[in-house]
């Protein structure tokens, strides 16, 4: 589990294709590697990856083809900056929200609207995720925990403060750039738990609404 509070802006130092369509990536991150060991989890742009090697401030992670296809990691090149966060420790403060590091879909920057104290950034929202995103709810963008300011059928907006613009990759994203999206896991659990009751055993929805509670 993660919190969506970025600890460090790292850098991709190598991308090595391996068997099939997977790859080994090397990421420079002196802070997150300061106590990293083989098998630890580190989120890279919101994707939970397992450390397979650590040396001289660089950790290596094995990225499966499935991950490369279903996230924006496949578009990364050597020299690209990435948001890094170590797995949350029990007993630490939860500064953002509960983040799994499991990307639900890939969005893209639609527009940027600078203001005096912040910047409003709009992102494309995949249709399959729209039901999980609500105004004032939480969403993770490239690993950054953010509050949804506005939401539509196929887009949403967030407000980025100067700290977020400076200390994460979101400050340098251009229109059209892809981003990893993870919706609030609580919304998905609620949908699953209520699904059978709302549908009903006969598929009509009547049984769950009018029937007794076991």
Automatic annotation (TrEMBL):
One of its GO terms (biological process) is riboflavin biosynthetic process. SUPFAM superfamilies: Riboflavin synthase domain-like. It holds the Pfam family Lum_binding. Keywords: Repeat, Riboflavin biosynthesis, Transferase. It is an enzyme of class 2 (transferase). The keyword Iron-sulfur does not apply. Pathway: Cofactor biosynthesis; riboflavin biosynthesis; riboflavin from 2-hydroxy-3-oxobutyl phosphate and 5-amino-6-(D-ribitylamino)uracil: step 2/2. It catalyses: 2 6,7-dimethyl-8-(1-D-ribityl)lumazine + H(+) = 5-amino-6-(D-ribitylamino)uracil + riboflavin. Transmembrane segments: none annotated. Lumazine-binding repeats lie at residues 1-97, 98-194. NCBIfam families: PRK09289.1, PRK13020.1, ribE. PANTHER family: RIBOFLAVIN SYNTHASE, RIBOFLAVIN SYNTHASE ALPHA CHAIN. Catalyzes the dismutation of two molecules of 6,7-dimethyl-8-ribityllumazine, resulting in the formation of riboflavin and 5-amino-6-(D-ribitylamino)uracil. Homotrimer. This is Riboflavin synthase. It comes from Micromonospora jinlongensis.
